[in-house]
Design brief:
Structural class: mainly beta
Order of helices and strands: EEEEEEEEEEEEEHEEEEEHEE
Number of helices: 2
Distance between the termini: 33 Å
Radius of gyration: 20 Å
Number of strands: 20
Strand content: over 45%
Helix content: under 10%
Length: 288
């Protein structure tokens, strides 16, 4: 039996560094990968005792258009009231299930962690380079002192628990974690057109979960006809937020389901940006 706590926070940080040399361009992009759902509010700080779970894991996804990237730090916090004595480990791994193939181990002293809402950055001893894999797992006893919440009636995709009695990993556990992974992605021999395309972006809505209003930011690097639409969990379009030509720049749109959707229900929604050949879709959670 283990006492576990979990939650998630919202920070999106992207830094672009361009280095020019004769006939060669390179680009380094720092990105923050979030466990689902990306939230800035700790909805349930109650300590929950979970029977028969001996390990927890989250699967993170990097942009699969990149051949390689390196992990440099983990950002997290714990809930107040948690015993921060002792130490734990976390593991990075590759494969179909958590810990199929361990590639990095890090010891963490619990008293070095910060209590929510403060965050602490845990630097990896050596940056972890991952090649030809668009996803990886983060797991280990380290998760046992993170924040847990049973906010959701159903399990969360890409969140796993290892159950001791059946001795197997099970996906869709109904807990979420206040944890992020910072990665650096490198490109070389990049032409202008490719670098231009990377300047298109769709950010995670803020706040998330939300009630009743949230904001969505996006950026385009050239004049394009832009659509930004919201869909329900069944894939049905519920509202169009943007449907017009836009010049290059950064934009912010407010989404208020109460004023734009008839009888909006709590739950997961998807929002999708289309601008030229760029298409991106993200999830958001409305709680009434």
């Amino acid at each position: 039996m283990k006492t576990i706590i979990i939650k998630t926070n919202s920070i999106i940080c992207i830094i672009l560094c361009l280095m020019l040399s004769p006939g060669l361009k390179s680009q380094a992009v720092y990105d923050t990968l979030y466990s689902y759902p990306d939230t800035t509010t700790f909805y349930n700080t109650t300590i929950i005792v979970v029977d028969d779970i001996t390990n927890l894991a989250v699967k993170f996804f990097a942009d699969n258009s990149w051949e390689s990237y390196q992990i440099e730090e983990v950002i997290c916090s714990v809930a107040t009231g948690i015993d921060t004595s002792g130490w734990n480990y976390f593991f990075f791994s590759l494969g179909e299930l958590p810990e199929d193939s361990l590639i990095y181990t890090k010891q963490v002293f619990n008293n070095s962690l910060s209590f929510y809402p403060e965050m602490v950055s845990i630097k990896l001893d050596t940056p972890l380079v991952i090649k030809n894999h668009s996803s990886f797992f983060l797991s280990g006893g380290f998760f046992n002192i993170l924040s847990i919440s049973q906010l959701f009636a159903e399990g969360i995709p890409n969140h796993f628990a290892y159950w001791y009695t059946p001795a197997l990993w099970v996906e869709y556990v109904p807990y979420y974690f206040n944890i992020k992974v910072v990665v650096k992605k490198n490109l070389t021999d990049v032409d202008d057109e490719t670098m231009l395309l990377k300047e298109y972006s769709l950010e995670q809505n803020f706040p998330n979960p939300f009630n009743p209003v949230t904001s969505i930011q996006y950026a385009i690097s050239s004049t394009q006809f832009v659509t930004l639409k919201v869909y329900d969990v069944l894939g049905r379009e519920v509202v169009t937020l943007v449907n017009e030509a836009k010049e290059a720049g950064q934009f912010e749109v407010e989404f208020n389901p109460e004023s734009s959707i008839k009888n909006p229900a709590s739950g997961v929604y998807f929002y999708q940006l289309r601008a030229g050949d760029f298409v991106d879709t993200k999830k958001m959670l409305m709680i009434k």
